[in-house]
Sequence to fold (320 residues):
Amino acid sequence: MRKLLFSFCILSYAVLGTSAKPAEEFVTSHLQNLSQSLDNWGVTNIDTSGSQISFITNGLDFTLRVGGRTIEASGTPLHLGYPIQLINGELYLNNVDTNLLLKPLIFPHQGSRAEASRKTIVLDAGHGGGDPGATNESLQLEEKKLTLTMVNKLKKRLLDAGYAVQLTREDDTFLTLTERTELANSFKPLLFLSIHFNAATNIEAAGIESFATTFMNQPSTGRTQLETTDTEFTRNMHYDKSNTLLAYSIQKQLILATSERDRGVKRARFGVIKNIESPAALLELGFLSHSESAKKFKDDHYLETLAKAIVSGIKIFLEQ
Ligand SMILES: [Zn+2]
Fold:
């Protein structure tokens, strides 16, 4: 009998505070009428059918559904802080989701983008040393090794494309999340990517997801309650609009290249990205706990496919 043992990706959401505030209370006082926002932005050809709105703009096919907590942009779900509300027959979106998530997708050139004077892309191989991250013992896979393999593949492709590249670790050593952040910031990065692979107790869990720092005053993906730490400003929030665009661009290219399940762009206050002083994303490139996915991670050609897609996403982000 095959036996799989997993240890989990140790990145964790911000420490939960004690003074939870109901999400519903927050939503009702910070709503924007979606049709009015789209009208103000000059978006036309809006298809409204009771419970959902669809429109095509900036080359993307958007769908928003009542009660849903995602915006779909050409099929990729971007997770919202709060659900879409139907009030008196009209759709409403939380104001932060409207202005920091939806609007940058429609007007990417207005986003607080990467700083043009900067040249260095910083890549962070998750885990290392005594922290193996996720593992699949039957296939002898360790997340810490896969992430290092991936950043080296990315580095080569990015150097070939003319970018400068720095790594937070180049061998099997352990750095704390704060050490990774401070090292990355010392390079004055153009952008920052932390590379990871997933694991779950549900062995059916599969797919690729990309994380950006949660907006201030919003609960992270998977939570519905505001916690005390959600009201804190962290340095990466200077790049809120860019973070969305960076994570979306890469997620889109990864799904196009692999046809893996699209788990979308999620939000979390991960310690390794929340104080990065540039656009930043944390990529979860698949599940070591999923037997078919895990087999692919033994295939160097598949890892090259992932690397090529990530570089395409970076280029699209920087050139838009
Ligand atoms: Zn990890």
The pocket of zinc ion is lined by residues 9, 11, 126-127, 133, 143, 196 (CB under 6 Å). Helices lie at 23-29, 34-40, 95-106, 143-160, 177-186, 240-258, 291-296, 300-319. Residues 120-319 form a domain with the Aminopeptidase fold (CATH 3.40.630.40).
